Amino acid sequence: MKTLLFITTLCLSVLTNAQEKEFRISTSKSYVEWEGSKTFEMGKHSGTVNIKSGAMKLKEFKIVGGEFIIDMNTIENTDGRYNAMLVDHLKNDDFFSVAKFPEAKLSITQVYYKDNVNVEVFADLTIKGITNPIKFKGKLDFRKDGIKLHTEFSIDRTLWGVDYKSKGLFGAVKDGIISDAIKFKVAIIWFQDMC
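The line above is the sequence of YceI family protein; the predicted structure tokens follow.
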């Protein structure tokens, strides 16, 4: 505990004197989990996709920006059902057109601090070459192995041109309609020893 407090204090003191500092994130410890479901059925699928690269920008020990590249070729289904078939479908033109758009991007544009650990983040999310603004609540966790920002949020996939079996396309209740909402659970970790 004393060691963690010392590292955190040292890191914050260095950042206080800096104009703006960029921290590379740990792509091995950071993660993105997703979940999709059918609107009128109990079935759902969940999985992961890897963060390829990214950096968090801090000024006076507060987040002021950041950019993260998502490797869409790493989409995985972790619930064990229809694994290979589902992943292939998610990568084709019905969903994310991964051959044409192999990367997605999240760019943090503004962060409001409610207190020392709770934040509201405004960002631009680019999928399939389409960029839309999103916002989400996050929480900072000062850990021994780095600083973690974790959050859970949902997006309307149709805003990014992912219209396959969308309720909006059919305009009526039909079997097999997939929810327009995709849920995400995200953790971004960057190292204190890099300050």
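Note on the example: The chain has a mean pLDDT of 86. The longest helix spans residues 2-16.
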